[in-house]
Amino acid sequence: MAKTENGRPSVDMGSIRTLNSSHMEDESSLGSDSEINGFTSERQADRYGFIGGAQQYSEDAQDVPPEVLRQREVKWLDMLSHWDKWMIKRFNKVRLRCQKGIPPALRGRAWLYLSGGKVKREQNQGKFQELDSQPGDPKWLDVIEKDLHRQFPFHEMFVSRGGHGQQDLFRVLKAYTLYKPDEGYCQAQAPIAAVLLMHMPAEDAFWGLVQICEKYLPGYYSPGLEAIQLDGEILFALLRRVSPVAFRHLEKHKIDPILYMTEWFMCAFSRTLPWASVLRVWDMFLCDGVKIIFRVGLVLLKCTLGTREKLKNCQGLYETMELLRAIDPRYMQEGFLVREILEVPVTARDVDKEHHTQIKRWKKNRGELNFKPAPRMHGARIIMQAEPPRRQDLQQNPTIVLEVPEPPQKLNKGKEERKSKKKRSIKKPTAIEEIPNPYPLLTGPPPQSLNPPPPSLNPLPPSSATPPPFLDLPSPSLAPPPPPSDPPSPPPYATVTLETSPETETNSNHQQSAPPTDLPAAKESALQQSTQSLSSSEQDTYL
Question: Distance between CA 15 and CA 183 in Å, rounded?
């Protein structure tokens, strides 16, 4: 008897693996080698490379006018040439252009840049060639060989056994098993790698697969499929907000999310949607992360089970699963699907919040998780910020995406050098030795000492408060004096006003040499010479 959990019967993951494998076997039986060879001789490949439009080709696919397509190509070429600047400063514009659709001629290069595969490749130069040259684990090689002809058997790259497409697919998957020996190989990785190989060489496809498995969908392909079960519970919890009718129906019939969303999420809808819609979904998925995968799943559930009229014929689990396996093509058309995806109110923060809630519930009901995946990166910008290139990569590859700005001290190195040179060029002022004036003017009250005070040097009467002209400048209101006819001769003695204490002044008088005996007469002569250029009124004022 099946165990029940959260009101729903638990699902055996071994049966899920068997169900998915048998489903792939049924699809591959539609295109044996003889049928495919006869099919290729009668029909040609469409613009996506599928023979006869076998990958659910939508007749309503949006055709972009050639002139608009050329303009978009020019814009994308400019972004790819200055990728780090656009990602750091104008990421919203990059997101908008991904939502409009990447030009087909540049889609492979843009996917490699968005996923961080370009940086990963340049950080591990020669790693893919090293893995490719190794024989590999026979346990995984046999499984990979059996899955090669099941991946898009009607695409021109994988149409024939032993063709270059299947050979490259084998190389990429084998290299991944050697790169991640603890994880090994999962069947759902094959369509992911095949989609990448349709747009880029084998080495680039390998690093793109590494980034998707490690950064976008961590833990999806590990044994036990615990990560995909957690995301199934997250999808079911988010459905309550987006479409309560569909949520109540699935809850009523106890339909576990793992029954209908495993192939959607693990293959990133590459085996579910028409090819034009697959490409548009991947453009947004590699830009904004796994929240796009959740939004696509919510749109399909809402459009299929979101109204009571649509649920009239769904009276149980079997009818509901049949309806979800044969979704109306109208809901998967490129234009309709993209518009609905952009309107779903689910953000990366909502996904992370619900992720923590489901982990707590899992540990409470089932115990600890067996897998320890790396933190999930929500889109190209987060991946770019989390993986800065090494310094030797920047030196060897100047065009590498710069993810972290250099420290300010290195950016301002030239400025600091200029400042240091300027400091060195400025000469330090030499110390000025202060020499005491041998003839200081006496100010203030006479010192209280036994020595008699020296004779006053001021020729003016004590009642006059106006300083002599050689001690103070005339008032700014007075007109400037006319230039003298002959330059006045310098005064016989330099006068310096010093503030000294009485004791210092007394000691200096004892140490200094005696002043000239005719000092009052000399001062009177200097006063007369300095006032020769003044007017009579000014002379009266000062004298």
Answer: 20
DSSP string over 306-368: SSTGGGTT--SHHHHHHHHHS--GGGG-HHHHHHHHHH----HHHHHHHHHHHHHHHHHHH-S
H/E element, 9: strand 8-9
What percentage of the chain carries pLDDT values higher than 70? 61
Q: Which CATH superfamily is domain 226-273+289-370 in?
A: Ypt/Rab-GAP domain of gyp1p, domain 3 (1.10.472.80)
Task: Please list the residues that pair with 51 across neighbouring strands.
Answer: 45
User: What's phi and psi for 392, nearest 5 deg?
Assistant: -65, -30
At position 436, the amino acid (one-letter code) is: P
Cα–Cα distance, 330 to 319 (Å, whole number):
20
SS3 for 155? strand
Low-confidence stretches of the chain (pLDDT beneath 50): 1-2, 15-41, 391-411, 430, 432-433, 439, 442, 449-450, 456-478, 492-517, 539, 541-543
CB 303 within 8 A of CB 340: yes
Q: Are 72 and 103 contacting, i.e. CB atoms less than 8 angstroms apart?
A: yes
Rounded Cα distance, 262 and 362, in Å: 18
226, 227, 230, 234: CA torsion to nearest 10:
-160
HSE-CB of 523 using CA atoms within 13 angstroms: 19
Amino acid identity at 331: Y
Assess contact for 267 and 325: CB atoms under 8 A.
Answer: no
Q: Where in the chain is the domain with CATH 1.10.8.270?
A: 81-223+383-397
pLDDT in tens, 412-437: 555 555 655 555 555 555 454 455 55
Orientation of helix 202-211 relative to helix 107-115, angle to 10°: 40
Please tell me the chain's helix, strand, coil percentages from 3-state DSSP, rounded to the nearest 5.
55, 0, 40
Where in the chain are all domains bearing CATH 1.10.472.80? 226-273+289-370
Quote the radius of gyration of the chain (alpha carbons, Å). Answer: 45
Identify the H or E element spanning 232.
helix 226-242
- Residue 4: what are its φ and ψ, rounded to 5°? -115, 145
Domain range 81-223+383-397, its CATH number among 1.20.120.430, 1.10.10.10, 1.10.8.270, 2.60.40.10: 1.10.8.270
| Beta-bridge partner residues of 45 | 51
DSSP per-residue letters across 239-268: HHHH-HHHHHHHHHTT--THHHHHHHHHTT
Q: What is the pTM of this model?
A: 0.68
d(CA 178, CA 210): 12
Burial label, 109 (beta-carbon count in 10 A; 0-12, 13-18, 19+): middle
